[in-house]
């Protein structure tokens, strides 16, 4: 995998200069910029999205939590969300809690069962640094477990 270090070495410029050119900052001369762009194309450089996400604290990823993907119109909702956010350059990470297939109807009035699974799910999505979370509930009920200080925007459906 080609890195910006490789591009910098190839063009005999600093890593910062390559970074500036790749990020559209006009701090390099036209000849230098052209040399870097040519090297990027020739060496088939692809940006490391993980590294960029660590620096910018943005991953371009939205986490979707579905209580149960097999219920009602949840697949259509997930499809609509995905189609919409792709227009803005975002991707999705889908987590299916599988409440019905896991526990049938036992989970509906048992907040402890749901809360433990939801805690795990939220931690998983935080660990991949999603920029936001969309929670798709299956039935109209109050979801109490999502903390207000999660540090990630959450939308409930």
Describe this structure in words.
This protein has helices spanning 4-11, 15-22, 30-42, 49-56, 74-86, 99-103, 111-127; strands spanning 61-66, 91-96, 132-136, 154-156. It has 157 residues and is of the alpha/beta class. Strands 2-1-3-4 form a 4-stranded parallel β-sheet, covered by helices on one side. Strand 1, helix 5 and strand 2 form a beta-alpha-beta unit.
Architecture blueprint of SSEs:
Elements: H1 4-11, H2 15-22, H3 30-42, H4 49-56, E1 61-66, H5 74-86, E2 91-96, H6 99-103, H7 111-127, E3 132-136, E4 154-156
Parallel strand pairs: 1-2, 1-3, 3-4
Please supply descriptive tags for the structure shown above:
157 residues, 434 Repressor (Amino-terminal Domain), single chain, 46% helix, 2 domains, Rossmann fold, 4-stranded parallel sheet, alpha/beta
Fourth-tier CATH superfamily name of the largest domain = Response regulator
Residue windows where pLDDT falls under 50 for at least 5 positions: none
Q: What is the CATH top level name of the largest domain? A: Alpha Beta
Estimated share of beta-strand residues: 5-15%
Supply the CATH architecture of the largest domain.
3-Layer(aba) Sandwich
Count of domains: 2
Rounded mean pLDDT is 86
Class based on secondary structure composition and strand pairing? alpha/beta
> Sheet bearing the most strands, described?
4 strands, parallel
- State the shape: elongated
- Helices and strands, in N-to-C order? HHHHEHEHHEE
CATH topology name of the largest domain: Rossmann fold
Rg result: 21 Å
Distance between the termini: 40 Å
Total beta strands: 4
């Amino acid at each position: 995998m080609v890195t910006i270090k490789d591009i910098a070495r190839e063009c005999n410029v600093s890593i910062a200069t390559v970074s500036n050119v790749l990020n559209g900052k006009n701090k390099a001369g036209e000849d230098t910029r052209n040399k870097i762009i040519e090297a990027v194309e020739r060496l088939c450089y692809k940006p490391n999205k993980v590294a960029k996400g660590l620096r910018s604290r943005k991953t371009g990823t939205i986490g979707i939590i579905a209580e149960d993907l097999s219920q009602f119109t949840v697949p259509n909702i997930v499809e609509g969300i995905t189609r919409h956010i792709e227009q803005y350059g975002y991707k999705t990470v889908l987590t299916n809690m599988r409440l019905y297939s896991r526990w049938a109807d036992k989970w509906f009035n048992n907040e402890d069962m749901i809360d433990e699974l939801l805690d795990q799910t939220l931690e998983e999505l935080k660990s991949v640094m999603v920029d936001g979370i969309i929670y798709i509930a299956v039935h109209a009920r109050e979801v109490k477990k999502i903390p207000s200080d999660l540090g990630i925007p959450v939308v409930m459906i």
